[in-house]
Amino acid sequence: MVSFKGLDIISTRILTKSQILKIFDVAKSMEMALHLGTSLKLLEGKILGSLFFQPSTRTRLSFESAMQRLGGGVIGFANPRVSRAYGSRAETLEDTIRTVERYCDVIVIRHPESSAAQRAAGIAQVPILNAGDGANEHPTQALLDAYTIWREKGRLDGLTVGLVGDMRSTRAMHSLAYALGKSDLKLLLVSPPELSLSSEIKEYIDKNPAKFEEFTNVEQATPLMDVMYVTRLNKEGAESEEEYKRLLQTYPRITLDMIKKGKPDLIVMHDLPRTDELGLQIAAEVDKTPHAKYFDQVKYSVAVRMALLALVLGAIE
Ligand code: CP
Questions:
Q1: 158-189 pLDDT per residue, tens
Q2: Does residue 57's CB lie within 6 angstroms of at least one atom of ligand 1?
């Protein structure tokens, strides 16, 4: 297997299934250490540069938590307005990266432009972790999503996983389709026709072990699913305010009644936040049921990001 040391995590497309399972194994050991309260000093003396050009609650804070849980430190910004990377005299992304990499050992970056993480990786000497680049990918989200499925179901192969929502411009969906496409499972792609998965990603799945089937009606697909992964309508991805408002009216919303018509052990996931202009996309009543796993995803995210940091920094082979 290719060593993770120094690897940029820009996309899940380029990761092999054995690399993904390696990340899972390391994440599970991190999870156990967290559970036992074992103090891990694997990254003592190392610094994470955390560059968020777009808002985040989960990705930024879980990366910071992961680094600190491993004994490392964090520098960076949660808002580019407080940096020299914003405004009419903003320095280039390349110059920001050239600067920040001289202060740290690894960089995590979220940016509105699709090519930003790749551009950063093209010039940085330190590993770059893509925390979401435009409508392109969000690979660490997909890895923690796939890890959640693996932990909750004990496997990936043989499952039927519903991907419900905006597959056109939700970056986490793209990365998850690439990550799950490598397993022998079935993907049910459920979306309004305008928001379907790109032909490029469908062609990728066709060349890999996973199979897929497309639906426009979530109620029709739900009884077939072992896993329902939901994402909200991506406002930034809409072509206009009018299109966004129109799509929102028919966009899938998940109710307890709908879940009750599914398999008894169906798990429901969401990358969060689950709120839009119409309220909660997954009804609050689902939260109290054993089906709800969206806040478990949040918990698992720290272990997965600890694994990624330890691997790319060579603290674990
Ligand atoms: N899932 C996710 O990326 O959440 P944040 O936008 O809060 O980081």
A1: 999 999 999 999 999 999 999 999 999 999 99
A2: yes
Give nearest CA residue, ligand 1 atom 6: 56
Which of the pair, 39 or 1, is modelled with greater confidence? 39
CA of 138 to the centre of ligand 1 (A): 9
CA pair distance 116, 111, nearest whole angstrom: 6
Determine whether the shortest distance from the Cβ of 271 to ligand 1 is under 6 A.
yes
Length, in residues, of the chain: 317
pLDDT range class, residue 262, cuts 50, 70, 90: very high
CA angle 81, 87, 93 (to 5 degrees): 85
Q: Kind and range of the H or E element at 205? A: helix 199-206
Which residues, listed in sequence order, are joined to residue 212 by a DSSP beta bridge? 187
Is pLDDT at 1 greater than 80 in this prediction?
no
CA of 57 to the centre of ligand 1 (A): 6
Helix (H), strand (E) at residue 294: helix 294-312
Burial class (CB in 10 A: 0-12, 13-18, 19+), 198: middle
Say if residues 93 and 116 touch (Cβ distance below 8 Å): yes
pTM for the full predicted model:
0.97
- Asked whether 4 and 130 are in contact (CB, 8 A), the reply is no
By most ligand atoms within 8 Å of CB, the mutation choice from 141, 148, 300 for ligand 1 is 141
As a whole-number percent, the residues of the chain with pLDDT over 70 amount to: 100
Judged against a pLDDT cut of 90, whether residue 156 lies above it is answered with yes
